[in-house]
Design brief:
Elements: E1 2-6, H1 14-24, E2 28-32, H2 46-74, E3 78-82, H3 89-97, E4 101-106, H4 118-121, E5 127-130, H5 135-143, E6 148-150, H6 167-170, E7 175-180, H7 185-197, E8 203-206, H8 229-238, E9 239-244, H9 262-268, E10 273-276, E11 292-294, H10 297-309, H11 311-328, H12 331-347
Parallel strand pairs: 1-2, 1-3, 3-4, 4-5, 5-6, 7-8, 7-9, 9-10, 10-11
Helix pairs in contact: 1-12, 7-10, 9-11
Length: 348
Amino acid sequence: MKILCIGPLWRGSNAGGLFKAFGRQGCLIEVVDEFYYLSLQQEQSLPLKICTKILRPWQIQSFNLAILSKFSLVKPDILLVYKGAFIKSTTLIRIKQRGAKLVNFYPDVSMFSHGKLLPQTMPLFDLVFTTKTFGKEDLRNAFGVENSVFIPHGFDPEIHRLIPGFNDLKQKYVCDVSFIGTWSPKKEALLAKLKTSLPGIELKIWGNQWHKSKEENLKKSIQHNEVLGDLYALAIQSSTINLGILSERVRGASSGDRITSRTFHIPGSGGFLLHERNAESVQYYQENKEAAFFETPEELADKVQYYLNNPEKREAIRLAGYKRALADHSLDSRAKTVLAHLHNLLKV
């Protein structure tokens, strides 16, 4: 199968990890990376923001022309778009007219969090993959998409792996408890309550937008930068306890997250996972055997204290969770599932 993949390839990108997994399954893949064509830095100075706004229409046009050019060269069976915030409906229509199947892999909570083009483009796809079990209904309600498939995230074996050595670098990430992810009001409140309950723990927080935090007791915990790629795996391995805190419901979504990419990245990297408990999250790991779970702020604090005080039990769970991830939750496993659906799509 020939697949033209549209999405970012930076080291640690979920999109890039999936694309490479297709290659390991024997597909011929070619990638058009939007980061080559668009200014997508999350943190920009005011002058850069102004320039980006002015240049964005020309950048989008250049990106779409690159897609059409690469399509003409490769003549793929499938055009697979990861999110697709900047691909135009006219581009998709031209490709569809040339006989390729259009597929979208949409990994986020809200159907309206990635630009104004999605309402025009989503109905054009022959198949949409969503990493949210509630995504199928949301896609139908938002865009009239009928052909969608749920598939969970997975870990990238090239990135989320055990990394021995580098102890001098790992020391920068050593802590009792860590959270790695973008700020939200819910996450801030939960972490602030944890720090209030257990003021003596060393908590470290990495991710975007944490400058929005107003909680005084989190100021020393917030690291004010992201950890990506190999440094992400190092941070997970250097944290005694890694928290899986889920995003709350946002505009355009019928639910908050029930699982997320960290659900699989943390055990895949060999980290101990303390995850929010819900009917879905406990399906992937056996509770108290392959991961630990919590529901309330009080239970979170109790579990953190318990597993800090019981290293043997914590280590047994960590190792079992790592084995479960290797067996069931890699992007190679997910790619096999995706490709089975793509083969069926090509038969239609």
